[in-house]
Amino acid sequence: MKRSDFHYELPGSLIAQHPLAERAASRLLVMDGAGALEDRMFAELPDLLDSEDLLVFNDTRVIPARLFARKASGGRVEILVERLLGGRDILAQARASKPLREGSVLSLAPDVEARVGRREGPFYRLSLWGPGNVMEILERIGHVPLPPYIGRRDEPLDRNRYQTVYAQRHGAVAAPTAGLHFDEALLERLRGRGIRTAFVTLHVGAGTFQPVREEDISRHRMHEEYMEVSRAVCEQVEAARRRGGRVIAVGTTVVRCLETAARSGTLAPFSGSTGIFITPGYAFACVDALVTNFHMPESTLLMLVCAFGGMDRVLRAYRHAVEEKYRFFSYGDAMFLHRRRP
């Protein structure tokens, strides 16, 4: 299968640059298992669910992962944290005029410096030193790591809006964007209807924005991301199955979590790294329906959605979304789709 098979034309004007005033004010394109489409509003999602269903969310929390530094020579360095390693160490990308030297020191603020450690593939191991622990330093001097297709600097509103309202566990450098549409009022409506919720963790890495460079997608290798599925979540999924409910993933990160944890054929607790790459032809073991944003052409996320909903059907839905002027990508609108029926 070729990367170009997943191309679609998208006018730049449809790429959302700011969030809407209200989270749940987004539009929702519904696609059933046969590929039929219906234009709805995201606030109507509870009307599409049953009390037997289980909604599974990703509770990762986006860290202020973009940092600006200077070398001792005065040269500028832009740092994007990839992963917190514990203690004062981070794994990060660094963009500078020349590669960083191991042992050198970068100035991030008058009272904060980064000591450059060894190279690990495309990343550098850095140690952050200054008042407070690493998270306190990032919260004080870091910037929200907005995706590259948002053509502006981060603003104060992004601290809140590029974060789900239920985010708990620090570690992501990109938001699980399907969850951005849920506000407290919508979650309360779901609870009021008896719809159960569960939470997994997948710390989204910067690699989520890396393009697929191989035309033959079987040669593509995914970046690794840390994830956890608890025993309690496994029990909640099994309980939903017993009562005849659907397991509904809120976002592609949740799909990747659950399908990784079910690779043996049975969902089981899992903690560690996943590099699962889901493409058309994949046999889903766990997820019945999916809430997701619209994804970039030729991206691994679009490939996953095509595997789930059927390639021709999903690409037809995307063309419909373009024609109807839906808003695309992180701050854009959403889809609710069921797993493809033959």
What does this entry look like structurally?
By secondary structure, the protein is an alpha/beta fold. The chain folds into two domains: 3-62 and 159-338, QueA-like (3-Layer(aba) Sandwich); 66-141, Thrombin, subunit H, CATH 2.40.10.240. The chain contains seven helices and 17 strands. The strands form three sheets. The protein has a nine-stranded mixed beta sheet, covered by helices on one side. It has a six-stranded antiparallel beta sheet with strand order 5-6-7-10-9-8. A hairpin with a 2-residue loop joins strand 9 (112-120) and strand 10. 41% of the residues are buried. The mean pLDDT is 96.
What percentage of the residues does DSSP assign to strands (E)?
25-35%
Helix and strand pattern: EEEEEEEEEEHHEHEEHEHEEHHE
Report the helical percentage: 10-25%
Number of helices: 7
> From the alpha-carbon coordinates, what is the Rg to the nearest angstrom?
20 Å
Q: State the CATH class of the largest domain.
A: Alpha Beta
Structural class: alpha/beta
Number of domains: 2
β-strand number:
17
Low-confidence stretches: none
Give the CA-CA distance, first to last residue: 20 Å
CATH superfamily of the largest domain: QueA-like
Q: Could you say what the CATH architecture of the largest domain is?
A: 3-Layer(aba) Sandwich
